């Protein structure tokens, strides 16, 4: 057998790659991870999940403290003053702490960090920073980057037309912000700057926000964001963006055709999706082809068509989510080690971290109906004692179950803590629970999670509190 430098070489140290590398090392495999960024942690820790949550959390406090905000409703009167450099400082500190933590974990687990971008030479060797490194198994975990909008140039340093990375780093609050794309990034980062004082207009090509989520959730999302003061231009396409001085003019027109309109903005955020990172990897040299969406296809154990080459995370099909990438990272390492690593792609929760949060797991009502007969139970957060007491009336929980077997097919929540609530739904579905199983599980009172129990009770028409 050939002699390799490593048993496993992972390309990319995002949540997919760094987790795969640590798990492989834990399983006794000699492991290296190539990463071209200055810090480990990938998109998620550097410019994604973590910095966006740092600003979402801080801006929530700011909004709660505003006149007529949540704090005033509870008898706490303050006049908030925005100190944006400090707010941005704590974002930077959060990133520093967590990316440094991954470096510590690499050292602890004896994972070698190969600093630089890797390119395949053949299926068992890559070049990193001018050095050739060989491995018996190579895992591609190169993640994704922003999908550009044709004809619109992103210039994060200029601070006018930006992507999510630029929108995280703004040095002042824009007076007017146009968000192109009413998906997860647009709504999360649009919410941050709206709370801090920007007038935000979201331009979405489709008739509703948040594609992929349940229909009821999408409709409610539009109502909630409008109520919060966001201007929504649904069914609208952007036909051009021109930068003029310190601002931009965004030309839009109805997606189905009609009169054009120009919206002025100080900042334009382009958030129309992300695409897999495969350029420059030298995939042609190992005979690995991409699918029509530019992704690397794998079989269920994350092996590609090329022997010894595996792939996980945003670069393969499925939702582009950190926890999906992490679970695939564990599974691929276990498969390489000869164990059985599995990810149940039917049960991957998704959360939008606005306020309220929007979360779901499993099938939407629309998809479930296509599959067969279903029963649906719904419960409003307004009737949940804790949400009502906390002045958080928006939202609902919806449980979708198979009409015949009662097995839970999907759960959707809009609530202040929907992201936390959805975990129990995912666990129940993973164990093949019925709506009756959830309805008869004792839930602590008073908690938002009781709304999941009541929605499950509503599947058979018997909730208590409505
Ligand atoms: P990535 O995290 O993209 O990491 C890939 C790494 O590979 C990068 O560091 C890159 O530098 C490196 N790389 C690429 N090519 C090479 C090469 N040739 N050689 C060496 N290194 C290479 N998901 C959630 O679940 N929750 C959230 O709250 C959330 N918030 C987000 C907010 C924003 C603003 C963005 C942009 C994304 C967010 N995501 C969130 C998505 C999440 O960040 C991704 O799904 C996740 O990071 C994917 O992990 P990954 O390991 O596949 O790739
Ligand atoms: P997205 O796919 O969530 O939303 C993009 C939106 O842009 C869609 O609604 C789409 O219809 C719209 N769109 C596409 N082209 C358009 C055009 N020309 N004009 C107007 N609208 C257009 O993508 P987004 O928000 O960029 O996020 C990328 C990925 O990052 C997400 O898919 C998600 O997986 C991940 N992410 C996850 C987060 C979380 O889990 N909380 C937070 C942020 C990102």
Automatic annotation (TrEMBL):
Residues 6-329 form the FAD/NAD(P)-binding domain. Binds 1 FAD per subunit. Its cofactor is FAD. It catalyses: N(6)-[(R)-dihydrolipoyl]-L-lysyl-[protein] + NAD(+) = N(6)-[(R)-lipoyl]-L-lysyl-[protein] + NADH + H(+). Residues 348-456 form the Pyridine nucleotide-disulphide oxidoreductase dimerisation domain. Keywords: Disulfide bond, FAD, Flavoprotein, NAD, Oxidoreductase, Redox-active center. SUPFAM superfamilies: FAD/NAD(P)-binding domain, FAD/NAD-linked reductases, dimerisation (C-terminal) domain. The keyword Disulfide bond applies. InterPro entries: Class-I_Pyr_Nuc-Dis_Oxidored (IPR050151), FAD/NAD-bd_sf (IPR036188), FAD/NAD-binding_dom (IPR023753), FAD/NAD-linked_Rdtase_dimer_sf (IPR016156), Lipoamide_DH (IPR006258), Pyr_nuc-diS_OxRdtase (IPR001100), Pyr_nucl-diS_OxRdtase_dimer (IPR004099), Pyr_OxRdtase_I_AS (IPR012999). It is an enzyme of class 1 (oxidoreductase). One of its GO terms (molecular function) is dihydrolipoyl dehydrogenase (NADH) activity. Its EC number is 1.8.1.4. Belongs to the class-I pyridine nucleotide-disulfide oxidoreductase family. The active site is a redox-active disulfide bond. This is Dihydrolipoyl dehydrogenase. It comes from Novosphingobium soli.
